[in-house]
Hints:
Blueprint: H1 16-35, H2 56-63, E1 75-77, E2 89-92, H3 100-110, E3 114-117, H4 132-135, E4 141-145, H5 154-169, H6 185-202, H7 217-223
Parallel strand pairs: 1-4, 2-3
Antiparallel strand pairs: 2-4
Helix pairs in contact: 1-6, 3-6
Amino acid sequence: MGVGTPVDGDSIYNGATDNASAVAWMLEIARGFKASPAPERSVLFLSVTSEESGLLGSGYYAEHPFFPMAKTVAVINTDVLLFMGKFKDVMLTGSGQSELDEWVRREAEKQGRYIALDPNPDNGMFFRSDQFPLVKLGVPAIYAKGYVDAEKYGKEETMKQVDRYWKETYHSPFDEYNPKTDDLSGVIQDAKLLYHVGTNLANSTEWPKWNEGSEFKAIRENSLK
């Protein structure tokens, strides 16, 4: 990734990783729901625009929701899925905020994976990605993906690859899919993981809660009164 010249030798920013990967991930999860028995709860699939211009799309939805925020049980979000094959980890951005961590952990363990913390919490990604406008209104959110421990690389080399992606590939013509070197098995792995998390939530009567100490706990409790 990010070495040499773009696959097609052009200057087009195709955005294969950011963010065609997560759009494809979302569509395949939607396809899985469509092919399964209808869940007990309604499920909304939403692809919003202008995240990097200030969360404009997700902010608009939060202000004009299809389902009221007080009736929205949870949000599942992801972004920038790397083409590095399967991962041993599931990295939770914003880990520790809500009970949704455990919903992810249970499914991760079924895949033989472990929960990893965000290696760069100083980036504040939980507070500036598309789940946040809904989070601010009290809706618990998951932002999860394999990220720090690719099976074929190990932790140290994985983080070198990730660092190289951000420096050389992100927002550049190099962000293309290369069938000779890119491995989509991790994207499939994450899609299956979060399909099951979503299915479990959609067929449950539980309302995952914010953890004690979360600044969003009181907002949620007030909205449900």
